[in-house]
Amino acid sequence: MKSTLHFVIFFCLSFVLSSAAIDVFAWGGDVTLPVVSGNKYSNARISVAYDGTIYYGRIFSTVAGGSFISWEVLKSTDNGITFIPFSNGAVGGSSKCTALDIICAGENATDFAVYIARAYLDTVTTTASLYADKYNATGGYASTMVNESFSYSTSRGWSSLSFATDSRDPNPYSTPYAISLAATMASTYDSVIVWTGNDGGTTIHRRSLFGTPGFLRNVSASIGSIAMGVTGYGRLGVTWDDYANSGDDWGVIETMFLYPDDGTNSQYPGPYTLAAGVAQFRRPCIVMSENTAGGTGPGTSDFRLIVSAEWNGDNGVWGAVYDSILLKIPSYNFTRLSIWTPSGNSTQCHGVFDPLYNNFLFTYCNDVSNSISYVIKFMNSPQMDYPIFFNSNFRDINTASSTFMAPRVDMSVSRGMAAFAWNDNYNSLFDAEWSVIVGVRENSADAHDLNIFPNPASEITNISCTADASQKVSLFVMDITGRVLLSREVELNAGSNSIQLSVNALAAGNYFIQLKGATINSTLKLVVTK
Question: In the chain, which residues have pLDDT < 50?
Answer without folding.
Answer: 3-25, 437-445
